[in-house]
């Protein structure tokens, strides 16, 4: 079973944990191998590697739920490592949203930007997909004082 989420033309697949046998060290225990693919009518870009942590995905899921519930204006996924940034915000009328996606290489010398209009059903679908990811890859507590 693949574990992925989509927003507009962005697809993020969780390939697995970078260190599947690590449970002690908080950071190493929570790195995920990620494959991204983003496309619109003019461009396509992708990235692969350990660019997201489990708790970054969980935080983004919570933020998206708050945006969908009209409790906040924006949700941001901005990982510790370069490679992927996602900004989702309200776009005028009720039930309409805009996603801005930035994909970059490790050096951040080459950044590709995409923008997508979303509706509420897409936002809700993404939060459900993120919940499934978190069930498959829960945050491992480990030693958080490292």
Keywords for this entry:
8 strands; about 150 residues; Transcriptional Co-activator pc4, Chain A; four-stranded antiparallel sheet; WapI; alpha+beta; globular; 3 helices
What do you see in this structure?
With 146 residues, the protein is α+β, with helices and mostly antiparallel strands. The protein has one domain (3-136): Transcriptional Co-activator pc4, Chain A (Roll). The protein is built from three helices and eight strands. It has helices at 26-30, 54-68, 120-136, and strands spanning 3-7, 10-17, 31-39, 44-53, 74-78, 84-90, 96-104, 111-119. The protein has a four-stranded antiparallel sheet with strand order 1-2-3-4. Strand 1 and strand 2 form a beta hairpin. Helix 2 (54-68) packs antiparallel against helix 3. It starts with a strand and ends in a 10-residue tail after the last helix. Pfam families: WapI (PF24716).
């Amino acid at each position: 079973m693949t574990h992925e989420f989509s927003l507009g033309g962005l697809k993020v697949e969780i390939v697995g944990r970078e260190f599947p046998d690590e449970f002690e060290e908080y950071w190493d225990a929570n790195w995920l191998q990620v494959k991204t693919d983003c496309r619109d009518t003019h461009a396509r870009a992708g990235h692969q590697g350990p660019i997201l942590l489990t708790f970054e995905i969980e935080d983004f899921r919570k933020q998206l739920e708050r945006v969908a519930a009209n409790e906040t204006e924006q949700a941001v996924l901005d990982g510790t490592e370069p490679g992927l940034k996602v900004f989702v915000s309200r776009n005028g009328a009720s039930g309409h949203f805009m996603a801005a996606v930035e994909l970059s290489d490790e050096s951040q010398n080459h950044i590709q930007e995409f923008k997508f209009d979303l509706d509420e059903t897409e936002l809700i679908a993404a939060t459900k997909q993120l919940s499934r990811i978190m069930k498959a890859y829960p945050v491992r507590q480990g030693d958080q004082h490292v």
